[in-house]
Structure formats: structure tokens, C-alpha cells
Amino acid sequence: MSAPQAPTTLLVIAKEPVPGRVKTRLTPHYTPYEAARLAAAALRDTLETVLAAPARRRILVLDGRPGPWLPPGIEVVPQGAGGLDERLAAAFAHDDGPALLLGMDTPQITTRLLAPALAPGAWEDCDAWFGPAEDGGFWALGLARPAPELLRGVPMSTAVTGAVQRRRLTDAGLRVRDLPALRDVDTPEDAALAAAAAPDGHFAAALAGLLRAPAR
What we know:
Blueprint: E1 9-15, H1 32-52, E2 58-63, E3 75-78, H2 84-91, E4 99-102, H3 111-118, E5 128-132, E6 138-143, H4 161-171, E7 176-178, H5 188-197, H6 202-212
Helix pairs in contact: 1-6, 5-6
């Protein structure tokens, strides 16, 4: 059963967890197939948290096809074309009201972490929510209304992505509130820390299974 409705739509932007296309920085420590298993587990954790959180709609903006990691109750729409900045911008076009966009790289997220941006008064005196990532990016971005120009042209996957994106918001005159900083899962060290932060999740179980597997 889904959580109660709230004024905000939750968007998750993700790739289908196909070996060789996801979590490539986990290799060669893990094989492409193992990296894809971890990506699928992270996506499943993320979507289950989204289902448990109060939201007006819950939308997966997907590059690829749904798989067994997709729980019922999530709308699925295709990603747009172009670079990541263009695809993030296009994701917000799937809803015309307040929306909070998440990635698939933080399986340790909880409804408690998301709660400030999903509360009934989340958008009072606030135009945007921003969740910084420890690697310099961001794990969450909320906008009171779609504004693709706020994302297009932001350099992605760099150590300054988050700073540039947040400055883009404030330079536009938006009132920004911040969510806690989180670590993205990009490297084996990141994976271990994310699993430790959410030891009961699918990601932690998948990682533990790989660590128990015989040496390759």
C-alpha cells in the first residue's frame, strides 16, 4: 500500500540495470554483471522508499525497459534525449506542479530524509530543494514548477556540478532549502558505506552476497 498523497510528485531518473551500462566505476573490482546486480538493488531500494513516502505521483523516468526490480505502483515514462542535463530538465516536464527528482545512486535514502521536501508546507516560502552529494554532485533536486532552463547547460558528473546547479537556482532568484548531504554509490568504497548506512536494504543484501561469493 502506498503512503498518503502529498502536494509533491516524486521523480526517479534511472537507467535499466544492464551489465556494462550501469555502475561502470565499480569495475573491475566487480564484474559488469555484479555491478548491474548492485544497480538493480539500489534502484529497488530507491523505488520502495518512493512508494513509502507521501507523494502526489510517483514516476520513474527510465532509460531502458522495466524489469523485476520495479515494484507495482510506479508510473514509468521514457527519458528524453541529449546529455544528462537535458534529460534531467525533460524529467520535470512530466508533471506541472511541485516535483522532487532523485537518482538511483543513493539506496540509503529514507522517507525521513525526504520528509522536509514532501511535507504539506514544503513549498511555503520555498522555490527549490537541493540535496548535495559528497562527490560534488547532487542526489535530489526539487522545483516548485518546471523550469528546464535551470538545468540545461549545467556541467554534469564533475566535482563542481552541485555548486554550479545550486548557484543556478539562487542566481534565478529562487528561495532554496537544503537536504542533508549523501554519498553516491560510484566506487567500491561508496558501495560499502551505503550498505552500512542501510544494512537492511536490498543493496546491502546484494553487496553481502557478492562479498560471500568465491573469489573469481
